[in-house]
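INFO  loader      accepted 1 record
INFO  loader      residues=155
INFO  predictor   begin
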Amino acid sequence: MIEEIKGRLAAGQGRYAIVVSRFNEFITAKLLGGALDCLQRHGAADEQIQVVWVPGACEIPIVAKRLAASGRYVAVLCLGAVIRGQTGHYDAVFQQVVRGVGQINYDTGVPAIFGVLTCDTLEQAIERAGTKMGNAGADAAVTAMEMASVLEQTK
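INFO  predictor   done
INFO  writer      dumping tokens
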């Protein structure tokens, strides 16, 4: 019989860190709310969650890496909002954050979940922070729980 491993949608006993960008806080606070609600609805107690606010999206990877490397967390959720606006700054920020968060996975073996919105307009960000398109913070929490479960089962 084929063995199949699937992530469970339950917080379990592990701790979760959430790194949130303060820049575009009117969006990121909604992402954080979605992530917290999702984790708590799936069994996480307050003591299992630590939230760390950073100034902007570029600062997410360094703090997330430190938290992941600490060995205290089963997953680190990275939440932010990069909105294109009128300058080319968007591309530089987006690329740095994507690369940084992705590298954490390889460097630490702890899932660093990319929950950073990269949108062309404020309206798109609002839609992905809890309206028509759901809540990307909650999506990140689901991914974090599933990855923590998969990694636990594949020890």
